[in-house]
Structures are given as structure tokens and as C-alpha cells.
């Protein structure tokens, strides 16, 4: 992919410097927002996103990938507003997250897979939600419920859209259930180049045998939930990254936080209590110094938020 679509217009790969590969300016339940809009304070949500983005820019961040798709309240107009306020290009996605990581909406359950593929291709080639912002990558998810029929349908649709357009793929995973391997199996069956695939949330485990098995498929892995100690405490995350660097895998990892500037899945005070260090800047303020102390080089870290991201997006 020679040019990367974004909310700031097309970017060349060279335009992408320090890039947050997996963060969200907004995550919400689409149905609640549509049915009861009085519950939504859009000005406050925009202010929260601008605050986080501005803080990240102070650490040299020049772009961000936001993998919000169906079921996560992807909102192109909101993302455009964040870019207008901050100047930060947001690289958007198309795909389906899945209801409870299990079901598709009835609309897609009752239609052939081409209905999904065509929607994804529309976002990639025409634009998202009536805007001129095109998606740059595809997103699917397999979590603890595993590869249900609907989840598999989304995976295969994502793969087919990737083959049609050349777009890279990001797959949410649940390492304890080893779903990354199942995702890679399907992508391989469909003929997707593994270099185009990023298996997100691989850093939620310190099972190095599983991670080595996943790396052997040829994908990139996301160590992308720093600040979410509820999934794996930070010292274990750091030890895993350090060990993988020692094994020569620094060029296959990307790093991030999966932070949501706003998320309505829980009350705000509950989110803060569960993840007090969660932000767009936690890796810069706390994680990188700890990794350097553990033997990771500055260049390896820069690659994880730069060259490795660019390689995946451009594959």
C-alpha cells in the first residue's frame, strides 16, 4: 500500500513516524447511543480525546491507528473532529468486532459472506459513513468464546476483502484461548500473506511457547494493552517483551495500550479504578524506561512504534 488513508488525507509510509498502533478515541455501545442520545456528552468525549491525543503528541506521536469498527461505535465524523482539533492523522479500520465475541447482527447472519465483504471494500475504496475518509486496514475479533460460526464468517470476509484490496488485517485475540492461531489458520486458508496480519493483544500472555508458535506463522504481534493489568500485570508484560527481544523478535512486535479516551462499557469511576495508569502516554512515561532497564534498546522501542507499524501497514 503506497499511500495510507487517514483523517488528515492520504499519508505516505514515510509520513508515519511514531505511530500508536492500537488506541481508540472513542469506544461505546452503538445501540445505546442511538436510542438514548441524551446520555451522550459529545463535547466531553471530544475534549477527552483531544486531551489524550495532545499528550501523546508531546511524546512525538505523529499518527494513530484506531481499530474501532462495527460494535465499537466507529465514528468517522468524531475522528475527523479530533484531527481538526489536534492535527493528528487517525488511520481508521473497517470490519466487525462481534456481539459478545460471538454473534453477527441478524442483517449479516441472514446474508451470504459477500454482503460483509462488499461493506468492507466500500469502506476501503469509497469512504466511511458518507465521508471521504477511507479505511486503511481490516479488523476482526476472536475471544474466549472461540471461533464461532459468525466469528469465522467475519474472519473469512476480512480475508477476502484483504485479498481484493490489498489492505492489511488486525485481529483481536485471546491468548489464553490461543485464538491467534485459529485466526492465522483461517487467514492462511484464505490465502492472506501473513506479513499483512497483526494479531492484537498477544501481550496479554507470558506463555512464550504460544507466542513462538504464533510468530512461526509469519504474523506481527501486538504487545498493545499496557495499562490493562487486569489482563496481565505490567512486570510480566515487560518480561515477555524483553525475552522476545533477546530471542531476536523485536522486529515482529508493535507496542501500545489499547486505551479508550472514552469508553461507556463501565461507569467512568470503575474504569479508573480498574486501570489507573491507562492512557495514550503510559508506554512513554513508564514502560519504555523499564524496558530499557531490562536490556531493550532505544532503537528496538522506536521500531515497535515506527518501522514495525509501517511495515505492517504497507505489506
TrEMBL record:
Q: Which cofactor does it need?
A: a divalent metal cation
What are the GO MF terms of this UniProt record? hydrolase activity, acting on ester bonds; zinc ion binding
Question: Which parts of the chain span the membrane according to its record?
Answer: none
Point out residues bearing the modification N6-carboxylysine.
139
Binding positions for Zn(2+) 1 per the UniProt entry: 22, 24, 139, 258
Name the domain of life this protein comes from.
Bacteria
Coiled-coil annotated residue ranges, if any:
none
Q: Which UniProt keywords apply?
A: Hydrolase, Metal-binding
Keyword Signal assigned: no
What note does UniProt attach to the cofactor annotation?
Answer: Binds 2 divalent metal cations per subunit.
Q: Which residues bind Zn(2+) 2?
A: 139, 172, 201
Q: Which Pfam families does the UniProt entry name for this protein?
A: PTE
Name the protein family.
Belongs to the metallo-dependent hydrolases superfamily. Phosphotriesterase family.
Can you name this protein? Phosphotriesterase homology protein
Taxonomic source organism: Paraconexibacter sp. AEG42_29
Amino acid at each position: 500500500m503506497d499511500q495510507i488513508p487517514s483523517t488528515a488525507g492520504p499519508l505516505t509510509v514515510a509520513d508515519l513516524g511514531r505511530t500508536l498502533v492500537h488506541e481508540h478515541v472513542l469506544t461505546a455501545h452503538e445501540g445505546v447511543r442511538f436510542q438514548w442520545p441524551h446520555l451522550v456528552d459529545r463535547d466531553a468525549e471530544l475534549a477527552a480525546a483531544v486531551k489524550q491525543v495532545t499528550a501523546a503528541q508531546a511524546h512525538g506521536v505523529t499518527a494513530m491507528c484506531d481499530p474501532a469498527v462495527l460494535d465499537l461505535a466507529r465514528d468517522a465524523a468524531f475522528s475527523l473532529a479530533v484531527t481538526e482539533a489536534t492535527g493528528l492523522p487517525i488511520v481508521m479500520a473497517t470490519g466487525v468486532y462481534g456481539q459478545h465475541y460471538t454473534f453477527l447482527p441478524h442483517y449479516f447472519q441472514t446474508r451470504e459472506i459477500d454482503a460483509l465483504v462488499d461493506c468492507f471494500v466500500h469502506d476501503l475504496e469509497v469512504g466511511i459513513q458518507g465521508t471521504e475518509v477511507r479505511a486503511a486496514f481490516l479488523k476482526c475479533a476472536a475471544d474466549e468464546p472461540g471461533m464461532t460460526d459468525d466469528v469465522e464468517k467475519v474472519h473469512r470476509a476480512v480475508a477476502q476483502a484483504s485479498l481484493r484490496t490489498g489492505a492489511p488485517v488486525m485481529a483481536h485475540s485471546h491468548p489464553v484461548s490461543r485464538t491467534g492461531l485459529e485466526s492465522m489458520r483461517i487467514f492462511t486458508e484464505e490465502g492472506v500473506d501473513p506479513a499483512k496480519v497483526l494479531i492484537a493483544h498477544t501481550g496479554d500472555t507470558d506463555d512464550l511457547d504460544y507466542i513462538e508458535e504464533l510468530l512461526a506463522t509469519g504474523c506481527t504481534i501486538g504487545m498493545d494493552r499496557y495499562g490493562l493489568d487486569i489482563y496481565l500485570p505490567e512486570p510480566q508484560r515487560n518480561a515477555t517483551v524483553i525475552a522476545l527481544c533477546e530471542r531476536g523478535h523485536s522486529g515482529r512486535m508493535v507496542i501500545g495500550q489499547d486505551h479508550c479516551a472514552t469508553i461507556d462499557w463501565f461507569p467512568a469511576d470503575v474504569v479508573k479504578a480498574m486501570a489507573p495508569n491507562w492512557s495514550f502516554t503510559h508506554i512513554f512515561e513508564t514502560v519504555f524506561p523499564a524496558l530499557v532497564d531490562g536490556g531493550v534498546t532505544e532503537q528496538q522501542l522506536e521500531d515497535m512504534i515506527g518501522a514495525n507499524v509501517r511495515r505492517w501497514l504497507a505489506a
